[in-house]
Specification:
Structural class: alpha+beta
Radius of gyration: 17 Å
Mean pLDDT: 96
Helix content: 25-40%
Strand order of the largest sheet: 1-2-4-3
Low-confidence stretches: none
Shape: globular
Length: about 190
């Protein structure tokens, strides 16, 4: 698949099969993160991989899902939950600047694209209980949690469509995600 086609189909996925992501795929996801660009090549990002079923289940209630949808539609049910979480951590001893969030965004794009190439869907979650994760996983005060990304094999589709009147994603009659996107003509100016 071309990179552009990979980007077109790599959407946010929120319902998953209950089969684990293999270690080989996790390694490729982490290698994609390691290879990502970084401001001044400081590489301030670190990662916490939560993959044991018990810990994934324990972490799940500390994440928030699909803010535009009512909980009964947006929150994965017990048999639809992710099988892997990876936390993106910013080491504040390495980077105290404002570019670390950009670094995290680049790394997350690499990671989710690498996962999707293997058929593994993802959902980047910015709204999570950071104090709980810090305490539960004994993270040092020298790291800041940027985000939590959920991974798994999706059980639904997620498709982009032209934005008409609202940016809010929604579920269609089949339970698949429809994601309105602005047209290029609305976002780009050529000089």
């Amino acid at each position: 698949m071309s990179v552009l086609n990979l980007m077109k189909t790599r959407r946010t996925y929120r319902r998953f099969e209950q089969r684990p992501v293999p270690d080989e795929v996790i390694s490729e996801i982490l290698e994609a993160a390691r290879l990502s660009s970084s401001a001044a090549n400081l590489q301030p990002l670190k990662y916490l991989v939560i993959r044991t079923p018990e810990l994934v289940a324990e972490a799940f209630p500390h994440t928030k899902w699909a803010g535009y949808l009512p909980p009964e539609q947006g929150v994965p049910r017990e048999n639809e939950r992710p099988t892997l979480f990876i936390l993106a951590l910013i080491d504040t001893d390495i980077s105290k600047g404002s570019y670390s969030d950009t670094d995290a965004g680049i790394a997350l794009a690499n990671m989710t694209l690498a996962a999707w190439e293997k058929g593994v869907g993802s959902c980047i979650i910015g709204s999570c209980d950071r104090p709980w994760f810090m305490e539960r996983f004994s993270l040092p005060e020298t790291v800041r949690i940027h985000s939590v990304t959920a991974y798994g094999y999706p059980t639904h589709t997620s498709v982009c469509e032209d934005l008409t009147d609202s940016v809010k994603y929604y579920l269609d009659e089949a339970g698949n995600y429809r994601v309105p996107k602005r047209k290029i003509s609305d976002t780009v100016r050529f000089c």
